[in-house]
Each structure stands twice: as structure tokens, then as C-alpha cells.
């Protein structure tokens, strides 16, 4: 069966295939849409948006939590040939004003909790709609809905993905029907999505990963999407949804790992604790042999099978991950120890790499053939090359159309031969596996001229110090490396309760007991790092870092330059 050449054609075919199947829902099922209901609501909303003046090429801003209405509105706008795009829910009024102005949006749809910030942006819109009032919108009965979506061409822009803006104003990445479909087809080779697969939508819809995983792939392949409005409830939702395919950022995997380890450590049954420790010992031994390319001895294979039956099957079932065919980790580098942990317990996590400028994923580890520390091999249709300075260059049919309204930046990113300059320093081994060293602009070059990857150092510290949420290594043009450390809210609360301490981070961060635990973790990490990479001093900061704040992007990437500026006093004190 041939792939439709636009997302709207794919949606119409998918909706018609099994109209009674559930397409969209929330945990508990209080809100649910079948494919037939989804399609009917898309047509109604498309007629209503047309009546409000939305025309082909117009931008429609969405600022919504993860909820079924996002899918309804976005898909309706696509059927008009319009360009729906999402605004991160943590955005300030000033950031909202920039995005609305840059995109040229004249209409925005939001919900009660975000409307004040949209109004405070000061940008005048033709229509600012509350999602609660969608039922009251009047459809345009004279609008030819079918003719509208059938006229859409594959090279029409489907959305704008705004970059995080950590080094300047956000850029609007334009991706098209063609780039999305080409990327989706490439992903089907090795990471197939099937009709009826269960997946969650919980990452921001302003991020390319959520749009592809829970929205565009659904239009093509008919998955069932459960929208989870609060990221903090993701672990409880998993036990209900039991996803068959899934994606998560490293911090989510780390928090699940911490939760498992805390639960096992707190068990009053000493026999169960010993059994879990034995099982993970066997699991890690098996993974390490596989990573070294060595055969797993029959005795260890038998022990692992028993460990899986007695321990790992139960844990996977408790987590809701027992029906996974595979799960992606992406958006940032995952700590090798974290990935080893999940592979040891039989959770098929594969690390991948991509960029908004590449629609989503360009490389990924094959399921069952993961190389820990790498981001896998090129997807079909992707060409890779390493430039003289170590930068990874990519050529593929799903490279972005360009940056909206910025031909100069587009030309800087995509050279005349069609190679996208990614900004990532990488290596490619003899088997084609790619290892990302770090962002080109984020490499540490110390006072002695030594190049280092801060991400590698930070992940080494993280693997030995589960108490930490944020870790930033500083050392550029400095004689040695130091680190700013921030506690993880959940881990800090558990530690405080265990030791009878207040859970206020301003107090807890100064407690000698906690400082000693962090110091031990840093010492253990330093033992695995080269001398020049080691952390000589650190400061535990008196607060938590939240996604979308001064220190983290909404997808939990570090804002290194703002952090350096905000904590300049603390950094200088470490070098005093």
C-alpha cells in the first residue's frame, strides 16, 4: 500500500479504516474520541476556523496542555492548508509576543490557565479563543471542506518548531508534509508503528518529538494516543496505558530508575532486596558481555532467564512497560549507567539522535543491537559526513525547508550542496554507529588547551549521585573544572524524610549529611574521569530547577549561557 503524499490524506484514510476504534483519550477514559468522532470534529472545526478567516498559509497559534483538543485543532488547521504551531506552556508574555509576531499569527487558541499570559503579551490578535468555547463555534456551511484538503501540496509547511533560543532569539524551523512523511517512512524500518499501538502524549507539543510520535505518526498508522496533561503523573499513567511504543527524555528515564531503586531499597523484605540485587548483577553482567561483543555463557544466560522470571517481569509490569516493543530516549544524551540499568531489566530502550531541522530522528540504535554511548546508525535515506573540525553533517530528504523568514540563517545551516551543519561534534565507528561528543559551541577548552565534553562529565556525576537533578560543569578557559549542582525534588524529599531533615532545598543543600553524600558521588565520578576532566570544587545550589525556567528549556536541556550569567557569583567563588 502506497503512502499518502500529505498528512491530511493520510488522516482521512486512517479515520475511514476503522471509525469505531478509539483514537484519542485521557487517563481514565473520561474524555475519548473514536476515529469517526475525531474526523467529524476536525471537519466541524475546520469549517469554524475558515469562518473566522483562516486561509491557506495562515499561522494558527496553540498554547495548550497535552489534551485531545490539541489534536483536533491542529488537524483541523492542517485541512485548511494553514500552519498550526505550538507555544511552550512555560513561555513568558515577552516570549509569547515574540513568537506570535515572528510567526505572523492572527488567531490563537489556549485554555484558562494560559490566557492571562497571552493577553499580557500585548500583541493584538484577530481572535483569541478559549478551548472551553470550541463547541460554541459556528461552522461555515458553505465551505468546501473536501476540496480544501485535497488541494494541499506535499511541500506545504505543516508546522513551525521554534528552537530553544539558548544562544539567541528562537528560530522557526519549517517542516513540510513531505519531510514528515519521509521521516515517518524511514522510522518504519526498524521502529515500526502499527494500527492500535498505544502511546502517550506528555512531552510539549511545541517539541518535534511529541508532534511526530503522538500526532503525525498517528495520522499515518492509526495509533491510540492518551494525552497526559501533567508530566508529573506520567509514571502512574503508564500502568493504565501500558504503551506498546514510547519515547522519553533522559530525565524521565532517570527519575523512573531512581523510583525503582528507592522502592527496592525501602522494601522491608530482606530476601526480596537480595533477589533484586542478584537479578541486577546478572542483568548488568549480561549487558556488559553483549556490549563487548562477547558470547553470553550458558550458565549466565540461564541465571538471567531466572532473574527475568523472578524479578524483572514483575518490575516491568509494575511500571506499565511490560508490553513495550521498544522505547526511544532522545533530546539529550542519556547517562550510560541509566541505559545499562534498563537494558539489564529487559526494557528495550534505544537511544536516538535528531534535530528539529531534521524533522525528528536521523540516527538510532537498532532494537536489540544497542551500543551504549552511541546514538546508533543512520536511518534509511540519511547520509552522514564528519567535517574537518569534527562537526556532523547530514543530508536527507527530511531536512527542513528552512528557518521562517530568515534566508541568511538558513544558508548558514544548509550549505549549497545540501548538507545540514548540525553543530554537534561526533565520531562514526567502522559499523556506522554515531557517537555525539557534544555541541560544538559547548565543548570546554580549559586554560591548558584541553578539549572536554561537559555532557560526558555531567552524566558520569549523575550516574553516581541520584540526589541531583541539575548538573552543570564549568571550565572553559579555566585552570580546572567546577560544577553547579541542583537537587532533584523527589530524591531530595525522600532523602530528607529518611534522615529526619527539612525538605526545603535552601536548608537541605547546606546539610553536612547531604553534602557528604554528594561529595562521595563526585569522588566516585572523578575516579572514572581523566585527571583534567575531574571536578575540583562544587556548589549545591539552594533551589530546584524547573523545565521552562531560567536554567532549563521546556524539554529539560541546560541553558548554559544563562546559567553562567545568573550564577556568576557562585562560579567565581569556586575559583577564588
UniProtKB/TrEMBL annotation:
Query: Any keyword Transferase?
Result: no
Looking up InterPro entries in the UniProt record yields: AMP-binding_CS (IPR020845), AMP-dep_synth/lig_dom (IPR000873), ANL_N_sf (IPR042099)
Gene3D superfamilies in the cross-refs? N-terminal domain of ligase-like
Q: Which SUPFAM superfamilies match?
A: Acetyl-CoA synthetase-like
Report if keyword Cytoplasm is assigned: no
* Listed GO MF terms: ligase activity
Q: At the top level of its lineage, which domain of life is listed? A: Bacteria
Q: Sorted alphabetically, which Pfam families does this protein's record hold?
A: AMP-binding, AMP-binding_C_3
Q: Where is the signal peptide?
A: none
Under PROSITE patterns, the record lists:
AMP_BINDING (PS00455)
User: Which PANTHER family did the record assign?
Assistant: AMP-DEPENDENT SYNTHETASE_LIGASE DOMAIN-CONTAINING PROTEIN, LONG-CHAIN-FATTY-ACID--COA LIGASE
Name of protein: Acyl-CoA synthetase
State the gene name recorded for this protein.
fadD11
Amino acid at each position: 500500500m502506497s503512502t499518502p503524499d500529505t498528512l491530511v490524506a493520510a488522516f482521512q484514510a486512517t479515520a475511514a479504516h476503522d471509525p469505531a476504534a478509539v483514537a484519542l483519550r485521557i487517563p481514565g477514559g473520561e474524555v475519548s474520541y473514536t476515529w469517526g468522532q475525531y474526523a467529524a470534529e476536525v471537519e466541524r472545526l475546520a469549517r469554524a476556523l475558515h469562518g473566522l478567516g483562516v486561509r491557506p498559509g495562515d499561522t494558527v497559534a496553540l498554547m495548550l496542555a497535552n489534551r485531545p483538543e490539541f489534536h483536533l485543532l491542529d488537524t483541523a488547521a492542517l485541512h485548511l492548508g494553514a500552519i498550526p504551531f505550538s507555544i511552550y506552556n512555560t513561555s513568558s508574555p515577552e516570549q509569547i509576543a515574540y513568537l506570535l509576531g515572528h510567526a505572523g499569527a492572527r488567531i490563537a487558541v489556549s485554555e484558562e490557565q494560559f490566557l492571562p499570559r497571552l493577553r499580557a503579551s500585548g500583541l493584538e490578535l484577530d481572535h483569541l479563543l478559549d478551548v472551553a468555547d470550541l463547541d460554541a463555534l459556528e461552522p461555515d456551511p458553505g465551505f468546501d471542506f473536501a476540496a480544501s484538503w485535497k488541494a494541499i501540496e506535499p511541500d506545504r509547511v505543516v508546522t513551525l518548531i521554534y528552537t530553544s533560543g539558548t544562544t539567541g532569539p528562537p528560530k522557526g524551523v519549517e517542516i513540510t508534509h513531505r519531510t514528515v512523511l519521509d521521516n515517518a517512512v524511514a522510522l518504519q524500518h526498524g521502529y515500526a508503528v502499527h494500527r492500535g499501538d498505544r502511546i502517550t502524549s506528555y512531552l510539549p507539543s511545541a517539541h518535534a518529538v511529541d508532534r511526530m510520535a503522538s500526532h503525525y505518526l498517528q495520522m499515518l498508522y492509526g495509533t491510540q494516543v492518551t494525552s497526559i496533561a501533567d508530566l508529573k503523573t506520567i509514571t502512574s499513567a503508564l500502568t493504565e496505558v501500558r504503551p506498546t511504543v514510547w519515547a522519553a527524555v533522559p530525565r524521565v528515564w532517570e527519575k523512573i530508575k531512581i523510583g525503582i531503586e528507592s522502592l527496592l531499597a525501602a522494601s522491608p523484605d530482606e530476601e526480596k532486596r537480595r533477589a533484586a540485587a542478584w537479578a541486577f548483577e546478572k542483568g548488568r553482567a549480561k549487558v556488559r558481555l553483549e556490549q563487548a561483543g562477547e558470547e553470553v555463557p550458558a550458565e549466565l544466560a540461564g541465571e538471567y532467564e531466572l532473574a527475568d522470571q523472578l524479578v524483572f517481569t514483575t518490575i516491568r509490569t509494575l511500571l506499565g512497560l511490560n508490553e513495550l516493543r521498544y522505547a526511544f530516549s532522545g533530546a539529550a544524551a542519556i547517562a550510560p549507567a541509566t541505559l545499562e540499568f534498563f537494558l539489564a531489566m529487559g526494557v528495550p530502550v534505544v537511544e536516538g539522535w535528531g534535530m528539529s531541522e531534521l524533522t525528528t530522528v536521523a540516527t538510532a540504535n537498532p532494537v536489540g543491537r544497542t551500543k551504549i554511548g552511541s546514538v546508533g546508525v543512520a536511518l534509511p535515506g540519511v547520509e552522514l559526513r564528519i567535517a574537518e573540525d569534527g562537526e556532523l553533517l547530514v543530508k536527507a530528504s527530511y531536512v527542513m525547508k528552512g528557518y521562517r523568514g530568515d534566508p541568511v540563517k538558513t544558508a548558514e545551516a544548509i550549505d549549497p550542496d545540501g548538507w545540514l551543519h548540525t553543530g554537534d561534534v561526533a565520531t562514526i565507528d567502522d559499523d556506522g554507529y554515531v557517537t555525539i561528543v557534544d555541541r560544538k559551541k559547548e565543548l570546554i577548552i580549559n586554560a591548558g588547551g584541553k578539549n572536554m565534553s561537559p555532557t560526558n562529565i555531567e552524566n558520569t556525576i549523575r550516574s553516581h549521585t541520584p540526589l541531583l537533578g541539575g548538573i552543570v560543569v564549568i571550565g572553559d578557559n579555566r585552570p580546572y573544572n567546577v560544577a553547579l549542582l541542583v537537587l532533584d525534588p523527589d530524591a531530595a524529599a525522600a532523602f530528607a524524610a529518611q534522615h529526619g531533615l527539612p525538605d526545603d532545598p535552601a536548608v537541605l543543600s547546606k546539610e553536612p549529611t547531604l553534602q557528604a553524600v554528594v561529595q562521595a558521588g563526585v569522588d566516585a565520578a572523578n575516579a572514572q574521569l581523566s585527571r583534567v576532566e575531574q571536578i575540583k570544587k562544587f556548589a549545591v545550589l539552594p533551589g530546584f530547577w524547573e523545565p521552562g525556567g531560567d536554567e532549563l528549556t521546556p524539554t529539560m536541556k541546560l541553558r548554559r549561557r544563562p546559567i553562567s550569567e545568573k550564577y556568576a557569583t557562585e562560579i567565581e567563588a569556586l575559583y577564588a
